[in-house]
UniProtKB/TrEMBL annotation:
SMART domains associated with the record: REC (SM00448)
Positions of the Response regulatory domain: 3-124, 147-275
Organism: Dyadobacter chenhuakuii
Residues found modified as 4-aspartylphosphate: 57, 204
Protein keywords: Phosphoprotein
Lineage: Bacteria, Pseudomonadati, Bacteroidota, Cytophagia, Cytophagales
Origin superkingdom: Bacteria
Protein name: Response regulator
Database matches in Pfam families: Response_reg (PF00072)
Length: 293
């Protein structure tokens, strides 16, 4: 049974989010809270199964979402729980601050039913590993000029991933790296402008061992900090569904963790959908318009 903690002081908003999630995600329990302090107290006192995700409003009384997020990420025993912040604000400064505080994703609060369904779909795909038929996911926007880096040491998987992405988004630029070492060499070869042009990074955790993947996640964070630019979303896509691997990846600030299906092509067929989610539904700090040489 998957579990989501929904934190929002607005009863109507909680109802809309709950209905959207329940319409798409079966066997998912949603536990509601009205402020950040209530959430933290429950997490400290509860012995129940940890949530797969905390979906939290930013503006709440007593303790707001940013304060609660900061408290969560300051505690080593809670740092691995992914947090999606939801807010009416579209301010670049607010969005950038949310990610600096450790948010896994930032979603501007929808105003339509379709918007709530898109939010639910983003949650399902990125945090619950629920793959829905394409007919339920909406359409993709133009992805021409976007750059996706795939770091995958299994050549068959890498080939399939690129095939599925280019099938649905032929204008999208796919950059494949076969190991943590080649990925580091690639990023170090880029100047600041080219680094800022990376729009999504998809990383296999076992490269070929878990340590290489985790070390690369930590390195990527420091690389973008040293460059002084916001990092692109980093999505781990692994055959491992073990909780220790998922928790370790989130502790190192992976934005999302997807488990490959028994037939990897089944999950790879949703890669363009994954791109659309991060570029259309989830807000990320804006970067300068530029390209990779």
């Amino acid at each position: 049974m998957r579990k989501i903690y929904l934190v929002d002081d607005d009863e109507d908003n909680r109802m809309l989010i709950r209905q959207a999630l329940e319409s798409m995600a079966e066997e998912t329990e949603i536990v509601e809270f009205t402020n950040g302090q209530q959430l933290l107290t429950f997490l400290e006192e509860s012995c129940s199964i940890e949530p797969s995700l905390i979906l939290m409003d930013m503006n709440m009384p007593i303790m707001n979402g940013v304060e609660a997020l900061s408290a969560l990420k300051d505690r080593s025993e809670l740092r691995h729980i992914p947090v999606v912040l939801v807010s009416t604000s579209q301010s670049h400064t607010t969005i950038e601050s949310a990610y600096q505080q450790g948010a896994n994703a930032y979603i501007v609060k929808p105003y339509t039913l379709d918007g709530y369904l898109r939010m639910a779909h983003a949650v399902n795909l990125c945090f619950l590993n629920i793959y829905l038929p394409a007919a339920q996911t909406g359409t993709f926007r133009n992805t021409a000029g976007k750059n996706v880096v795939i770091i995958e040491d299994n050549p068959d998987h890498a080939e399939l991933m690129e095939i599925f992405i280019k099938r649905d988004a032929p204008g999208l630029n796919v950059i494949r790296q076969t190991s943590a070492e080649t990925a580091i060499d690639f990023f170090e070869s880029l100047d600041k402008t080219a680094s800022a042009a990376i729009d999504l990074i998809i990383v296999d955790l076992y490269l070929p061992a878990r340590k290489q993947g985790l070390d690369l996640l930590a390195w990527l964070r420091m690389y973008f900090v040293d460059k002084g630019i916001p990092i692109a979303p980093v999505v781990v896509m692994s055959s491992s569904g073990h909780q220790q691997d998922i928790k370790a990846s989130f502790k190192l600030q992976a934005n999302a963790y997807l488990v490959k299906t028994a037939e990897p092509a089944g999950s790879f067929s949703y890669l363009t959908d994954l791109c659309a989610v991060w570029w259309d539904t989830i807000s990320f700090p804006k970067k300068p318009e530029n390209g990779i040489a």
